[in-house]
Each structure stands twice: as structure tokens, then as C-alpha cells.
Specification:
Helix 5 packs across helix 10, helix 8 packs across helix 13 and helix 10 packs across helix 15. The protein has 294 residues and is mainly α. The chain has 16 helices and 4 strands.
Length: 294
């Protein structure tokens, strides 16, 4: 974002930098840090972009940006990534879970894996409510990194978002449109809608926010997730059937459009309560129905 050249001392001070092309070289330098000396010379090009995200993306494109994996590797030793890995280990120990949090390519495990690429998508959809950005994985480890991974990012929250995402996959194609139901951005949109709905409900959030209570009721939450996910998909189906009448409509472009998805989420959250009311149901009754089961 900013760089200052000290001509007298021949130094260049840079702030909030991101590597566009050359992550592998930096990783190699880090691995051989003890063997580096002042005789080594490396050609480097710096560009100041500030908050111009469009310029950042253009630079990434035209400088042969490799892929999100290289950026993931570069961030693997970041304090937030190390903390999340530790928090998942603590969750495993405390609640007898079996999850591995991977922060770089090449890691292996026999337990269920949540890598930080998926975690970034879950945070962007479940916490930031921006599912239309979840296909930009490279950006989430570059210019949007601090927006996604920061002190507010917790393993316990990622686990809840992951449970919802898993339920979305398991519910499957309830709208008889496999293209949409298997489309990643559509799935993350369902995650966003359900997370927003839960967080907007004082009845639901009171049971959801405490991780001890959540783990105890996790199976019951999965059943409730299934109920809401099927309802959300059906409401999305109605919306898409109306949108498809517009010339040039494609569902992929629709789910990438911020304005469309913000409007969709607001409408569906309102319609969930309407549908519950029609069925003589509300969140208090749903809690009684699902959480009183043994």
C-alpha cells in the first residue's frame, strides 16, 4: 500500500505488501534464511496500489499470478493461521472431534480436513455475507486477506459454517436443478442466508453462539439446518424462475452479482418468516420441536 525510499541509507520500506509472482522464491529464501548473505541479488518490481482493488487484480493477471495455493503457502506462517490451527486442535481435544486445519498445500491427515481455502469461503459467506466473492480464492489470500482472516476469526465459528455447508451438500438437489444446486456460489449463498437468519433471530442465536452448548446440540442443529436449507432452496427456485424470464439470464452470472445476491438474501430472509407463519410455525416452536428430541 505504501513504500518509502531512503536514498541515503539505500533502503526501501514497504507496508502491507502482497506477492503477485514470486511466492516460491520467498518460501525458498525463508527455508534457507540462515544461509543467506549480502552477496545475493534478486530482481524485484514494486507497484503501489493503495486501495485500488481493480488495479491489484489487473497486476495479478498480467504478471502471471500462479494460483491461490502459492498465496496460501505464503500465509501459512501468519499468526492468524497458526492460531486457527491451534484452536482446531483444542476443539478436538475438548470435544473429542477429529478435524485437521490445513494452511498450505502438501499437508496430509487421516482425519477430516478443513483447509484455509474452504475456511476463507466459509468466513466470506457465513460471517461477511458476501457469497458472490467466494470464487475469488486468490484475492482472499491477497488484497482481501485481512478482511477474512483477523482477530475476529475463530475456529469455533468456522466449524459452525462448515456444518451448514456440509448440510447444504448432503441435502442435495431439492429444486430439481442440478446445475444450480451444485454450483459453488449458489451453495455459499445458502450458507450466507442461513447464517444471517440465525444471527438475526434472538431465539436461535442464543443457542448457537455458545460453543459448549452448540457441540452438545450439534446433531439437533444438523436436523434444523436440513429443514431451513430445503426451505431456502425452494425460495431460491421461485426467485430464479422469475429471473430466468429476463433476456440473457445465466445463473452463474446471477450468483456473482453483488446487487442481485444482496437483494435475494433480504427477500428470502423475510420470506422464511412468512412461510413459517403460513405453516403456523415460528422459531420458538421450531426450537421446541427440534431441541426437545432425544
Amino acid at each position: 500500500e505504501k513504500m518509502t525510499l531512503d536514498k541515503e541509507n539505500l533502503t526501501l520500506e514497504i507496508e502491507n505488501y502482497s506477492v503477485v509472482n514470486g511466492a516460491q522464491s520467498i518460501l525458498s529464501f525463508k527455508a534457507e534464511e540462515e544461509n543467506l548473505n549480502s552477496n545475493i541479488r534478486t530482481l524485484v518490481k514494486f507497484s503501489t496500489v493503495g486501495n485500488d482493488f481493480t488495479l491489484t487484480e489487473l497486476i495479478s493477471t498480467y504478471n502471471n499470478n500462479q494460483n491461490a495455493i502459492s498465496l496460501r503457502d505464503l500465509r501459512s506462517s501468519d499468526s492468524v493461521q497458526l492460531r486457527l490451527k491451534r484452536e482446531f486442535e483444542e476443539l478436538n481435544d475438548k470435544y473429542s472431534l477429529g478435524y485437521s486445519y490445513f494452511s498450505k498445500a502438501g499437508e496430509t491427515s487421516t482425519s477430516e480436513v478443513i483447509d484455509n481455502g474452504l475456511a476463507a469461503q466459509l468466513i466470506m459467506s457465513g460471517y461477511k455475507f458476501k457469497p458472490y466473492l467466494t470464487h475469488l480464492k486468490a484475492a482472499m489470500f491477497d488484497q482481501r486477506y485481512s478482511e477474512v482472516f483477523n482477530r475476529n476469526t475463530k475456529a469455533s465459528d468456522i466449524l459452525k459454517y462448515y456444518d451448514i455447508y456440509t448440510a447444504v451438500i448432503q441435502v442435495g438437489d431439492v429444486i430439481e436443478n442440478e446445475g444450480v444446486s451444485k454450483y459453488g456460489l449458489a451453495r455459499f449463498t445458502v450458507v450466507s442466508i442461513l447464517c444471517r437468519y440465525i444471527k438475526n433471530s434472538s431465539d436461535l442465536i442464543s443457542l448457537w453462539i455458545d460453543i459448549d452448548q452448540y457441540i452438545q446440540d450439534r446433531g439437533k442443529w444438523r436436523n434444523l439446518y436440513n429443514y431451513f436449507i430445503k426451505l431456502i432452496w425452494k425460495l431460491i427456485k421461485v426467485k430464479l424462475e422469475n429471473e430466468e424470464k429476463e433476456e440473457g439470464f445465466t445463473y452463474k452470472n446471477y450468483f456473482k452479482n453483488e446487487k442481485n445476491i444482496d437483494k435475494l438474501m433480504n427477500e428470502i430472509i423475510t420470506n422464511i418468516d412468512i412461510q413459517l407463519s403460513i405453516a403456523d410455525m415460528d422459531n420458538t416452536k421450531l426450537i421446541s420441536l427440534y431441541f426437545s428430541q432425544e
